[in-house]
Design a protein that fits this description.
8-stranded parallel barrel; alpha/beta; 10 helices; TIM Barrel; 20 strands; Elongation Factor Tu (Ef-tu), domain 3; about 425 residues
Length: about 425
């Protein structure tokens, strides 16, 4: 099934089927995901071949494209397994492979020539000559290194073929290594970060001591927990949709294949609304409505930055003195269906009668209600819903779309 592309494309992570459903439901144009091997995130559930086939069918039925990550740096002993995996994945109907390794790229062209090839940010593409070289090898799209600026992306766009696409990460966690290539995890834990097993030791607590060079000081901050010298802020470009489009970025990529369905839902919804708002009013000074921007602050996140898009961060940089996530809201339930003023839900976290909650639906600002009553699926009246995944009902005076999120501010009392 040939799903036409939309520009700018909103590309969402899908670490498992729940996240895939969330991405599609809240408006992604495309998703990226992995099989059980050869993707750069081994922690998420990922997809078996049968699950991948079902996922592609579901996505395509909803007009959403599917890109499969095959972007690890394989060893020679793995090559026969990759060569067997590629046509099997292609037969599921995926729209593109995301690759880093030249050998993998060569195998894709040989065993699955009908499938597009996208070049991963792991390849470290920082200039148009490299992008053109990949194009000549059969690549349709390049995801540049995260270290380059919008001005450099604009320059790249002017010097690559018109039909070659540029995709960029616009939201989510960033790695302090060069384009994601790092050996810290290998050395400290034995888990290969270039094969999808990163333990994120860059986010551990460290203290620097250099006793052999008196008088040379590294300007770092410190608190009672030590100093976090390798922690990158999270990326957030939701205020800069026009600048991304004008630079020639055709696909806006959200990081997060290890994130929850609630995270995927909220971020995809925010960027969907921001992009659609720009397309309705494509002014150079366009900024999303405030409620849209607020959405990316309600999810779990580190302090935000714009990475290297506007030049070298210099002093603020990616040297970050905190490893704390900001968690202002908590997803407490998912909406299953609504009828006659009653919302049928599935619990995600405990909450109580009397709590004030927000209901987040696709494409509209969240609506707030106070929980007047709770009732179990068996008809028992409850003071709270304490059990994970339990089914329950609560009164809601307006219709609610299935799959919507119910969340509450974390500062509310839980006693």
């Amino acid at each position: 099934m040939n799903i036409p592309k939309k520009y700018p494309e909103l590309l969402a992570p899908a670490g498992d089927r729940e996240c895939l459903d969330a991405a599609v439901r809240f408006g992604a144009d495309a998703v990226y995901l992995a099989g059980k091997r050869f993707g750069m995130r081994s922690a998420p559930g990922n997809f078996t071949t049968e699950e991948l086939r079902d996922a592609v069918d579901f996505a395509h039925a909803n007009g959403v494209r599917v890109y499969l990550t095959c972007n690890t740096l394989p060893r020679s002993v793995e090559l026969p397994a990759i060569e067997a995996f590629l046509p099997e994945a292609a037969a599921c109907g995926i729209d593109a492979f995301i690759a880093t390794d030249f050998g993998t790229l060569r195998m894709i062209r040989r065993v699955a020539p009908q499938v597009e090839i996208h070049i991963s940010t792991q390849a470290g593409v920082t200039n148009y000559e490299t992008a053109n070289a990949f194009y000549e090898l059969g690549a349709k799209r390049v995801i540049p290194a995260r270290e380059i600026s919008l001005e450099e992306i604009r320059l790249m766009r002017r010097h690559i073929p018109e039909d070659m696409e540029i995709e960029c990460f616009v939201h989510g966690a960033m790695c302090v290594s060069f384009s994601g290539r790092c050996l810290l995890s290998n050395y400290l834990t034995g888990r290969d970060s270039n094969r999808g097993e990163c333990a994120q030791p860059c986010r551990w607590k460290y203290s620097l001591v250099e006793e052999t060079r008196p008088g040379q000081y590294f300007p770092i901050g410190e608190d009672e927990d030590g100093t976090h010298i390798l922690n990158a802020r999270d990326m957030c470009m939701i205020r800069y949709i026009p600048q991304l489009v004008q630079a020639g970025v055709c696909s806006f990529k959200i990081e997060g294949r290890a994130k929850s369905p609630a995270y995927v839902s909220a971020v995809v919804n925010a960027y969907r609304c921001a992009i659609d708002g720009y397309l309705r009013d494509p002014r150079p000074d366009y900024t999303p409505e405030q409620w849209i921007v607020d959405e990316v602050y309600k999810i779990s996140h580190r302090e935000y930055c714009t990475g290297f898009f506007f030049g070298d961060p210099r002093q603020d940089a990616e040297i970050y003195y905190e490893n704390q996530y900001r968690r202002y809201y908590q997803n407490v339930a998912d909406a299953l269906s609504w009828e006659n003023g009653v919302l049928h839900c599935r619990q995600r976290n405990k909450f109580w009668v009397g709590d004030t909650v927000e209901i987040l639906e696709k494409g509209i600002p969240p609506r707030t209600i106070q929980v007047e009553s709770l009732r179990s699926a068996a008809g028992e009246w409850l003071d709270a819903v304490p059990h994970p995944m339990m089914l329950f009902d609560m009164p809601v005076p307006f219709p609610v779309q299935p799959g919507s999120l119910i969340r509450k501010a974390k500062e509310q009392s839980e006693t």
